[in-house]
Every structure is written in C-alpha cells, then in structure tokens.
Amino acid sequence: MATRIRLRRMGRKKHPTYRIIVADRMAPRDGKFIESIGHYEPQADPVVLNVDREKALHWLSEGATPSETVKSLMRKAGVFKPVVEPVVVAAAPVVEDAPVEEAEAPEAPAED
To answer: What gap in Å lies between CA 104 and CA 83, rounded to an integer?
Structure first.
C-alpha cells in the first residue's frame, strides 16, 4: 500500500486548521486515514505547529512520502534535524606553568 503524509482540512469556513495525517495515496483529502501525526493552525497568533517526531520518522522509514507542504512544515518543526546527545568530556587537569621570571633590563647609567 502506497502511503502519503499530507494535510487534512478541519475547522470552519474561512478559518481552517489542518491535521497532518498518514493516508493511502488514493484516499480523498478529507477521507479515511491511517494515523494522525500532528496538527497545524496557520491563522492562530502565533502559528501552532505540532508534529510527533517519532511517528513521522517511523512513517518516513516505512516509505511514506510527504507532500511538499508537509515536507516544509516538518522541516520547520525540526523533524529532519538529527538528534544530538550532549557529549560529556572529562575535563583535563589544569597544569600550571612554572612562573616565568621577567628578564631584568640593563639599567641606564645615571646622569649627573
């Protein structure tokens, strides 16, 4: 079954909200879907965009292809950014250098 990640229109007239869904490629826009993985409210102030990263990556690994709009929204939500775990590096012991003695400049002869 070919699956597609796309938007499903919700909300009322002139005030749309969208659900990001996984559906069969041939299913109608607002028809039957497999799973909802997020939602998008473009007219809210500020814009609301929630995507379940784990579900999205799961469906992408299963071969689902996102629509251009959903791909852009997923990029904004940070789905494609790699998860970087903080690396704990042991601090090296601080080695104090031996004190450097300043070289004494030769004294100028005193003028009488």
So the answer is: 57
